[in-house]
Amino acid sequence: MPKKDPCQKQACEIQKCLQANKYIESRCADVIQAMRKCCAAQVGKESICCSGFIKKQAVPEQKK
Predict the structure, then answer these.
(1) Does residue 15 surpass a pLDDT of 60?
(2) Is the separation of the CB atoms in 32 and 25 below 8 Å?
(3) What is the pLDDT of residue 46?
(4) CB 31 within 8 A of CB 13
(5) Tens digit of pLDDT for each residue in 24-48?
(6) Integer Cα distance of 31 and 17 in angstroms
(7) In the predicted model, is pLDDT for residue 16 greater than 80?
(8) Environment class of residue 54 by beta-carbon count within 10 Å: exposed (0-12), middle (13-18) or buried (19+)?
(9) How far, in Å, CA of 27 to CA of 32, rounded?
């Protein structure tokens, strides 16, 4: 049986929050931050839920 993703709960909470708030990300900032914290703790470990978060954090934003 596959092991449960350690950040699956946070990923589901993001989906619930976004659906409840008509996909306005700013209304779910606290839930998204909880996901980032969880993913930061999973660096180097296998987490499908965190794959997008880890890549997004690794790429710095460029401002002109």
Answers:
(1) yes
(2) yes
(3) 77
(4) yes
(5) 999 999 999 999 999 998 877 778 8
(6) 8
(7) yes
(8) middle
(9) 10
Q: Which two tokens stand for residue 60?
A: 């710095």
Which residues in 14-32 are b (16+ Cβ under 10 Å) and which e? Answer: beebbeeeeeeeeebeebb
Task: Tally the residues of the chain.
Answer: 64
What are the φ/ψ torsions at residue 45 (nearest 5 degrees)?
Answer: -110, 160
Concatenated DSSP letters for the chain?
A: -PPPPTTHHHHHHHHHHHHHTTT-GGGGHHHHHHHHHHHHHTTTS--TTTHHHHHHHHS-----
Q: Which two tokens stand for residue 63?
A: 């401002």
